[in-house]
Amino acid sequence: MSIYSNLNLFKDFKTMWLKANKLLLLCVVIMMASCESDKKSREKMIEEVMIIHDEVMPKMGKIKSAQKRLLQEAEILEREDSVAKSSKVKELRMIAGQLGDAYDGMFDWMHQYPKSFDDMAEDEVFKVLEEQKVKITKVNKDIKEALKQLDDLEE
Fold first, then answer.
1. Of all helices (H) and strands (E), which one includes residue 114?
2. Which domain holds residue 135?
3. pLDDT of 83-108, one tens digit each?
4. Coil, strand or helix: which one is 117?
5. Neighbours of 48 (CB within 10 A)
6. Which of 55, 74, 114, 123 has fewest C-beta within 10 Å?
7. In total, how many domains does the chain have?
8. Is the CB of residue 71 less than 8 Å from the CB of residue 92?
9. In this structure, is residue 5 part of a structural domain?
10. pLDDT digit string (tens) for 9-67?
11. What is the biggest distance separating any 2 CA atoms in the chain, rounded to whole angstroms?
12. Torsion 120-126-129-135 (CA) sign
């Protein structure tokens, strides 16, 4: 083999090496962009879940106080005349029960919501967040329905 053929091999190797490095760099850039996109998607999903939560969380005090008040009213009515006012007592207790279930639903959801997503694989994070969105949407709906029952009662 002549020195010229060795130089050509070296040039070919150098060209391949540069192309491989460019390809590797391109892959790294694409992966970083993909990770950034996943991070933004994750943050967006967390925000969606928290918006649903934040819509009804401020109503928790009203729910608890209304539940307590309705149970007290039911107890007073029952002591006054349990037979004549039994349907009103049942209604008050039913709505108080709905309020209590809605209240408990919120706190049950909050206690099971993951503290962090850092130890989860990205596909698991999206699955968990989708499940959390379904759960908090139900909690939100239950709270609104219980409050509507309360409003209807008080009209």
1. none
2. 41-154
3. 778 899 999 999 999 999 999 999 99
4. coil
5. 16
6. 123
7. 1
8. yes
9. no
10. 556 656 765 666 666 655 555 565 555 566 788 889 999 999 999 999 999 999 999 99
11. 116
12. negative
